[in-house]
Each structure stands twice: as structure tokens, then as C-alpha cells.
Amino acid sequence: MELLKEDQASVMAGMPRSTLRRYVATGKFPTPIKYDGWHVGWRREDVTAWLLSRAVVEDVGALDAAAPDDLQALFEACPDELAARLFPRSVAVGGA
After folding, report:
1. Number of domains comprising the chain
2. What is the pLDDT of residue 27?
3. Which CA distances in Å does 65 have to 22, 45, 53, 72?
4. What integer is the mean pLDDT of 31-45?
5. Chain Cα centroid distance, residue 66
6. Are 42 and 4 in contact, with CB atoms under 8 Å apart?
7. In this structure, what are the phi and psi dihedrals at residue 3, rounded to the nearest 5 degrees?
8. What is the CATH number of the domain that holds 62?
9. pTM assigned to the model
């Protein structure tokens, strides 16, 4: 399990940290996990699933009720190409 720091999750999600915090507080973004006492981080797979769900709703539209397994299969089919097309700003984050 890879954890992303707040700045990494913010870049991957394509939003400022203040927006990320607001989304977390309102339940619109995955909840971070506490580690090392007071540090928090987001599981990369949770952020990826959130991005895919938004892409499906906003960009594709046809899969409005897709199950998480369907989204995972879609991403696994061609992860690099799909990520580059759907999330051009997040591709540079890589395996930080």
C-alpha cells in the first residue's frame, strides 16, 4: 500500500490543497489515513478510484452506475494511455 502525502494527493487530484481539505471535510474526497502518530496520507488506490469515478461521470457519462470492479478493470486494461488521456496533470506524479 502506497501512501500519498497531502501535496502529492493534491497534484494527483488536480486541485489545490485547500480544495482537497474542503472535499475531505464534506465527504467528496477519500478520507486520509493516520500514520506515525499525527501524519496523514491517502492510499494511492483510493485517489485513483476517486479520479476514475469522476472521469466516468464527467468525461464518459455512459458508465454512470459503474461498480468499483468495473472501474478497476477499465484502468488495468490500459493504465498509461488512459491515465494520460484522463488525467494529464497527474501522470507526472508517478511512484513518488
Report:
1. 1
2. 93
3. 25, 19, 10, 14
4. 91
5. 16
6. yes
7. -100, 135
8. 1.10.1660.10
9. 0.58
